[in-house]
Amino acid sequence: MPFLPLPKPSTRPKRVTGGGSAEERCTAHGLPEAVAKYHEHAAGRKQCCSAVVQEVAAPVAVVWSVVRRFDKPQAYKRFVRSCRVVVGDGGVGTLREVRVVSGLPATTSTERLEILDDEHHVLSFRVVGGEHRLANYRSVTTIHPAPEPVGHAVVVESYVVDVPPGNTRDDTRIFVDTIVRCNLRSLARTAEAL
């Protein structure tokens, strides 16, 4: 599934957002239709959603080999100190407990694998517990071939999450987008080194 042309690799990841009004569908995020269908979220009145796009100078298969390891998010997510599978074998329904590095407003996150599609390179998980402020967090990550240069991949990660009490939608988006952006940049470095 080809992706629309992207900025040169030296440019920053693109941030696209949505959400805000009561029970709004977060759709498109400015993504091509073939990609956007994976990144539609129902966002309630007290939720926000966003998507971040990152080009990776590595083939889709290489990037996917890193992302699909639900049991090893620390391979590229630098804010993850450790991870252990609590239930399951790495397939849909697997529960993992993630321990977060110090300095973040979280210590643990219990996450359930919702989608693992090796054919279309789609992974989705939902936060179902833990000690953190990101209630009802759901993430979808997709990987697509970049149109140019040949052999590069495009990663899109979108999410929907509750806005914590005392925060605004913008506060929440900025915070979560920063974490997602850091993770995707780290994913690019990791995959490009393989």
TrEMBL record:
Keywords: Abscisic acid signaling pathway, Cytoplasm, Nucleus, Protein phosphatase inhibitor, Receptor. GO terms for biological process: abscisic acid-activated signaling pathway. Its main location: cytoplasm. It comes from the Eukaryota. It is found in: Cytoplasm; Nucleus. CDD domains: PYR_PYL_RCAR_like (cd07821). GO terms for molecular function: abscisic acid binding; protein phosphatase inhibitor activity; signaling receptor activity. GO terms for cellular component: cytoplasm; nucleus. InterPro entries: Plant_def-hormone_signal, Polyketide_cyclase/dehydratase, START-like_dom_sf. Residues 1-24 are annotated as: Disordered. Residues 1-10 have a biased composition (Pro residues). Belongs to the PYR/PYL/RCAR abscisic acid intracellular receptor family. PANTHER family: ABSCISIC ACID RECEPTOR PYL6, OS08G0374000 PROTEIN-RELATED. This is Pathogenesis-related protein Bet v I family. It comes from Musa troglodytarum (fe'i banana).
